[in-house]
């Protein structure tokens, strides 16, 4: 069996909920939002909220299945290329007379195939996910650019493009957030409240132990990569309609922002640890910080440096906390003999 465990579950529920990295990220989002509302002009406007959510929706969507993949100890770097491929496919099919609904459905099917191809190579062939998805990152992006070349398709029906940016009443919240909330609930239930989700954590802690305990490791990994492919294609459709432009190079580099948000939200890059509420908060944290800094006139390069430093600190904190816990455990074991009753020792 693996030496990795979940000792935190020995603590009361309130402590597990409040004294966690996920709770810290959520608290940081609230603190920065309140500070920005009080000190930065226009930060509290509904228009700022609208554009923040519209800009972060693509990352929010892809982060859901990416969280499950990383918890198993794998990674998918091809998600942004699938976004670009689905965008190019929607544009190409629509330009050749196919209806929008059929074009979007075809893009989802292609996303499923891309995810299944990644999953087959990782789960059944046994190749490292990092190497596989670096390769398919280039493959899918090359196909996407090959489909449209350097041109862009922009003549989409206004009914579709307007729908991607509509707002719920006067709240400033885009209607696309309803789609995200539905998917978030589905993935939260799948990960945190189902045997399938427990199997995901088991795989991340020890793939061999999970296999012996009855988890179908290969099928689980295949399904997770299929999820990332389909949701990335869905994000590509939204990206296309949001900006009204289908290009093969859409969303280039987006995979790094997704992975940064997932790790910032408390998911361990080594697998076996993480929660979706923390990941959602991690995405919003990046969005809130970026929005606040932009309103303060900070350049994009400086914003990227700050986000990068936050990511490095979040990854380092996992190792530091593990080291502190290990030291505390060893000290506790060292004190154990002195706590043995004298009567027992004399026997």
Automatic annotation (TrEMBL):
Pfam families: BPD_transp_2. GO terms for molecular function: hydrolase activity; transmembrane transporter activity. Keywords: Cell inner membrane, Cell membrane, Hydrolase, Membrane, Transmembrane, Transmembrane helix, Transport. The chain crosses the membrane at residues 23-43, 49-70, 77-94, 100-123, 130-153, 165-191, 222-241, 253-271, 278-295, 301-324. It comes from the Bacteria. It is found in: Cell membrane. InterPro entries: ABC_transp_permease. It is a multi-pass membrane protein. One of its GO terms (cellular component) is plasma membrane. This is Autoinducer 2 import system permease protein LsrD. It comes from Nostocoides japonicum T1-X7. The lineage of its organism: Bacteria, Bacillati, Actinomycetota, Actinomycetes, Micrococcales.
């Amino acid at each position: 069996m693996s030496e990795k465990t979940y000792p935190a579950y020995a603590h009361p529920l309130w402590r597990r909920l409040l004294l966690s990295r996920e709770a810290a990220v959520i608290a940081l989002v609230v603190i920065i939002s309140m500070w920005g509302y009080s000190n930065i002009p226009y930060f509290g406007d509904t228009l700022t909220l609208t554009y923040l959510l519209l800009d972060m929706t693509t990352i929010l969507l892809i982060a859901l299945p990416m969280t499950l993949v990383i918890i198993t100890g794998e990674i998918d770097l091809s998600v942004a290329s699938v976004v670009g491929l689905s965008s190019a496919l929607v544009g190409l099919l629509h330009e050749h007379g196919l209806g929008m609904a059929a074009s979007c459905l075809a893009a989802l099917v292609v996303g499923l195939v891309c995810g299944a191809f990644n999953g087959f190579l990782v789960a059944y062939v046994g190749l490292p996910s990092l190497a596989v998805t670096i390769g398919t990152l280039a493959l899918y992006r090359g196909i996407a650019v090959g489909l449209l070349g350097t041109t862009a398709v922009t003549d989409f029906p206004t009914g579709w493009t307007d729908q991607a940016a509509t707002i719920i009443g006067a709240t400033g919240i885009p209607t696309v957030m309803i789609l995200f909330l539905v998917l978030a609930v589905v993935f939260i239930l799948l990960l945190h409240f189902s045997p399938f989700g427990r199997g995901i954590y088991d795989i991340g802690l020890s793939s061999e132990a999970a296999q012996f305990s009855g988890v179908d490791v290969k099928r689980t990994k295949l399904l997770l990569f299929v999820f990332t492919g389909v949701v990335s294609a869905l994000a590509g459709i939204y990206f296309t309609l949001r900006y009204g432009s289908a290009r093969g190079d859409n969303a280039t580099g987006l995979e790094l922002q997704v992975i940064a948000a997932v790790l910032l939200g408390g998911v361990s890059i080594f697998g076996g640890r993480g929660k979706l509420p923390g990941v959602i908060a991690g995405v919003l944290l990046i969005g809130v910080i970026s929005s606040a800094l932009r309103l303060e006139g900070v350049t994009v390069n400086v914003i990227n440096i700050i986000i990068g430093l936050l990511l490095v600190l979040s990854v380092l904190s996992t190792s530091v906390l593990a080291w502190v816990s290990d030291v505390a455990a060893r000290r506790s074991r060292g004190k154990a003999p002195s706590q043995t009753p004298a009567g027992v020792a004399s026997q």
